[in-house]
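pls read this stuff:
=====
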Amino acid sequence: MQIAIGARVGRLLLVEETRKTRAAGSIQAFLCQCDCGTEIVVDKYNLQYGHTQSCGCLQRERTSKAKRVHGA
């Protein structure tokens, strides 16, 4: 998957390239804006391989649906 500014990965729009500091040094990352309006910084690796697709709102929606009782 090609990762570039302006690309979409799931619900995320890549806004700006940046660096993220880790214990072993800094890694390439992107500032992303989620469809819900939240901005987060995500590692390039996680975007490239589809490990991160939203700010967390997607998981909250899926959990909410799974916990919903039929007819309630």
